[in-house]
Automatic annotation (TrEMBL):
Keywords: Cytoplasm, Cytoskeleton, GTP-binding, Hydrolase, Microtubule, Motor protein, Nucleotide-binding. One of its GO terms (cellular component) is cytoplasm. This is Dynamin-type G domain-containing protein. CDD domains: DLP_1. The lineage of its organism: Eukaryota, Viridiplantae, Streptophyta, Embryophyta, Tracheophyta.
């Protein structure tokens, strides 16, 4: 059973190392599900003295005002023999055998987080104490509840501390150790008041009564300790801590425990309760109860851990492979991602994925349709053919077919193809841009690197833009080549002058009759 507390201790340390302090987070929190004992009490209630009595060491900072300004997760580990020592999680390789140095380190680590101001922080300090004089136990020491802000503190410090304490003890897995001084009216106890608000039935609240030896003469705390004044599910425990004079004299904790036992055993009012009084009994009772609670929570903890693992593995899958640290590894990763993008782009073009068929549609549908819309009839009308042919004769008629006229007639038609040809290039360019965007979206590796994703897109678009201009120039050159590809054989096939049906002596515009012009028109078409 003792191993269960050690297991929870290790999980708590892992949670803190990973930034899980039980606060709201986008990721699942395991801290809130771990059973823990939170120590709650007002300032000057004897909270620190109770903890030191349970541990058997004088190690907590003391002073006026708010001394505990960060939660202290105190993990006690019982060892069979050896010298007592302490370890902080933030100083894993350092052992403290001087507990006065432990006290100083708690103060210093608090200041590192909050500064030297008197503000508070919810980030816990983890302290492990290994000793043959302790029981296996984990306690969370919370800042003491206060009613008034002092000099140097925020005006909201009272509400801030209460909110922090409440955030710990309102969780159903938290066991509340409510510290109340016996020399004050229990009805005014800060610890009992806040514990009652979050645990009205007292199912997870342990009451601890301090300063019993400081009560006025003629009064006692028997009714409280017997559960008559305020009943809890668990028996009240009374403790007698060292006085300030004992602390100043550095009275040994072992001697203080012995004197505490003697007080209850020899007191007429409390002798019948002596077997369940004192800090030693308190530590054993809390350890046993914590073990029982942990045992009952193990199935739920195991289920939560497995669920969390699955969720986090899903997150890691979305994030992709780990990022290489060296330049060569980064270059390799970048090249691999670019290859994946290139493969997706190629699959769109090759028909493995949708999109490439639209390019075929440009040449099979868009370009032919645009060519059909060209006004070739206007260029090859009888009037235009006659005009170009007769103008080519110049001041005297040709004895053979007027080549210049035919060239002008053909070129005037072919030039109009430049527009649809350029439009076809633009159409293919637009389709390729869309395919680039799809390929980027489908390359899962790029989702992990938003900046690389943008750069890959920009590089692809720049390349497409450059190739569009090059393609336009090449396409227009093809059109121009068609305009210039008129061979001798082409003109030999055209009707000769003797077949024109006209007479060179006739007027310029009568020399070519409609029959001849229609034959020329038919040949051009």
């Amino acid at each position: 059973m003792e191993n269960l507390i050690t297991l929870v201790n290790n999980i708590q340390r892992a949670c803190t190392a990973l930034g899980d302090h039980g606060e709201e987070s986008a990721l699942p929190t395991l801290w809130d599900s771990l059973p823990a004992i939170a120590v709650v009490g007002g300032q000057s209630s004897g909270k620190s003295s109770v903890l030191e009595s349970v541990v058997g060491k004088d190690f907590l900072p003391r002073g006026a005002g708010i001394v505990t300004r960060r939660p202290l997760v105190l993990q006690l580990h019982r060892i069979d023999d050896g010298k007592e020592y302490a370890e902080f999680m933030h100083l894993p390789k350092k052992r403290f055998t001087d507990f006065a140095a432990v006290r100083q380190e708690i103060s210093d680590e608090t200041d590192r987080e909050t500064g030297r101001s008197k503000q508070i922080s919810s980030v816990p300090i983890h302290l492990s104490i290994f000793s043959p004089n302790v029981v296996n136990l984990t306690l969370i020491d919370l800042p003491g509840l206060t009613k008034v802000a002092i000099e140097g503190q925020s005006e909201t410090i009272v509400q801030d501390i209460e909110s922090m304490v409440r955030s710990f003890i309102e969780k159903p897995n938290c066991i509340i150790l409510a510290i109340s001084p016996a020399n004050q009216d229990l009805a005014t106890s800060d610890a009992i008041k806040i514990a009652r608000e979050v645990d009205p039935k007292g199912d997870r609240t342990f009451g601890v009564l301090t300063k019993i030896d400081l009560m006025d003469k003629g009064t006692n705390a028997v009714d409280i300790l017997e559960g008559k004044s305020y009943k809890l599910q668990f028996p009240w425990v009374g403790v007698v801590n060292r006085s300030q004079a004992d602390i100043n004299k550095s009275v040994d904790m072992i001697a203080a425990r012995r004197r505490e036992r003697e007080y209850f055993q020899s007191s007429p009012e409390y002798s019948h309760l002596a077997h369940r009084m004192g800090s030693e009994h308190l530590g054993k009772m809390l350890s046993k109860h914590l073990e029982t609670v942990i045992k009952s929570r193990i199935p739920g903890l195991q289920s939560l851990i497995n669920k969390t693992i699955i969720e986090l593995e899903g997150e890691l899958t979305k994030l992709g492979k780990p990022i290489a640290a060296d330049a060569g590894g980064k270059l390799y990763t970048t090249m691999e991602i670019c290859r994946a993008f290139d493969q997706n782009f190629k699959e769109h073009l090759d028909g493995v994925r949708a999109g490439g068929e639209k390019i075929y549609g440009v040449f099979d549908n868009q370009l032919p349709a645009a060519l059909k819309r060209l006004q070739f009839d206007k260029h090859l009308s009888i009037e235009n053919v006659r005009k170009l042919i007769t103008e080519a004769d110049g001041y005297q008629p040709h004895l053979i077919a007027p080549e210049q006229g035919y060239r002008r007639l053909i070129e005037s038609c072919l030039v109009t193809i430049r527009g649809p040809a350029e439009a076809a290039v633009d159409g293919v360019h637009a389709i390729l841009k869309g395919i680039v965007q799809k390929a980027i979206a489908e390359t899962t590796e790029l989702k992990q690197y938003p900046t690389l994703r943008v750069e890959v897109g920009n590089a692809a678009f720049e390349s497409l833009e450059r190739m569009r201009e090059e393609s336009k120039r090449a396409t227009l050159q093809l059109v121009d080549m068609e305009c210039g590809y008129l061979t001798v054989e082409f003109f030999r096939k055209l009707p000769q002058d003797v077949e024109k049906g006209g007479n060179p002596t006739h007027s310029l515009f009568d020399r070519y009759n409609d029959s001849y012009l229609r034959r020329v028109d038919k040949g051009e078409r």
